[in-house]
């Protein structure tokens, strides 16, 4: 999407010349993404893609002085609903995986909407939740059953990991 915007911007600058070539050239150069910025975008995409298969969030999340964090009832109920969705929905086709992603996204949205947690417990919930959101999005966009199965496994590990850190 950024590339489309940049390209359209470049076309607008080149197409709207009014005899000020130097000014146009300066604007055009400023609008071009640097090689460094392009590499950062590619690295961000690669990191996001590799994270959908892993559970690196477990390296960041912490316990509450050795105990589980107290979560609010809406969050616990929402996570329980996600766990139930994972157990009950069969996934043998790509369409079924996409439907699973849609249901998990609805369940996740209810957790986000109804959560009343604050402070350190809420911060740790985000460490758990943000990678899960990326995984659900990746599942909804996957193009193969094989990839979908790997992402589903990672989602299941992520969702079940909730009970290790929250009560």
From TrEMBL:
Residues 20-47 are annotated as: Disordered. Residues 20-30 have a biased composition (Basic and acidic residues). This is Lipoprotein.
